[in-house]
Design brief:
With 259 residues, this protein is of the alpha/beta class. The chain has one domain: NAD(P)-binding Rossmann-like Domain (Rossmann fold, 3-Layer(aba) Sandwich). It is 44% helix and 14% strand. The termini are far apart.
Length: 259
């Protein structure tokens, strides 16, 4: 029996959730294309050792997003999975948000995912097997947060985009889902929490304390835990799963935890 090797594109693959996801797919023998603005030498070496093709791309540019899909198609003639993972945070109140601030967050977190979906759908709709798209949102996309309203808006919109496109393209056998992580350790975004905070461990304690399960286990979420959920959503076992938003946040989006 011939085993069909599947092709996956992962944006924001240079570190954190994207890197873990690319490596998870590579371990399952997918042909993996990672895309990011830049890679550290160490992370590029790790990804390439796992046979991940490291592409350089700015997902805020539509042409760049389209080129990622085109390069995967040129190499394998198929696209089975797209993971729209590239994203950025912004901790600012509305009075401090400029038009440029708004644009860079929306372009990175929402526009990039929309046009990534558009490029992928145009290919997947022509394939007998359809395809799977997973968007990386946030628990801020489920429950708004007071310290980063623009980020919350972008991720709520991404959850809405996921559900809307899942409904539109079920007829094409394309499944579209999203994951909604809480604070994940060893990511570029979480490192922003430590800027101008001299006591790193105190910040870690605050992040753990905000999620009831994280508090119970006394640890943060790992990138691999999010990656495992993404790989599941891309799998045949999730063949009837579409339009879902899976919270991987230690229960943070459930509400106010017990004291």
């Amino acid at each position: 029996m011939t085993i069909q090797i599947k092709t996956v594109v992962v944006t924001g693959a240079a570190n954190g959730i994207g890197k873990s996801t690319a490596l998870r797919f590579a371990a399952q023998k997918y042909t993996v294309f990672g895309a990011d603005l830049q890679y550290s030498d160490e992370h590029r070496e790790t990804l390439e050792a796992a046979e991940v093709t490291c592409l350089t791309a700015d997902v805020r540019d539509v042409n760049s997003v389209e080129s990622i899909v085109q390069k995967a198609m040129e190499a394998t003639s198929q696209l089975d999975v797209l993971v729209n993972n590239a994203g950025m945070g912004m901790v600012k109140q509305i009075d401090d948000v400029s038009e440029a601030d708004w644009d860079v967050v929306m372009d990175t977190n929402l526009k990039a995912a929309f046009f990534g979906c558009k490029a992928a759908v145009s290919v997947m709709a022509q394939q007998p097997s359809g395809g799977s798209i997973i968007n990386v949102a946030s628990n801020a996309g489920i429950l708004p947060r007071s310290h980063d309203p623009v980020y919350s808006i972008s991720k709520m919109a991404l959850v809405g985009l996921t559900k809307s496109l899942a409904l539109c393209h079920s007829k094409d056998r394309i499944r579209i889902n999203c994951v909604c992580p809480g604070p994940v350790e060893n990511t570029q975004m979480i490192e922003e929490n430590f800027v101008d905070r001299p006591d790193r461990q105190q910040v870690v304690r605050e992040l753990i304390h905000a999620s009831p399960l994280a508090r119970a286990w006394d640890r943060m979420i790992s990138p691999d835990e999010v990656a495992d959920a993404i790989v599941y959503l891309a799998s045949e076992g999730a063949g009837m799963v579409s339009g879902t938003a899976i919270a991987i946040d230690g229960g943070k989006s459930l509400g106010v935890p017990p004291g």
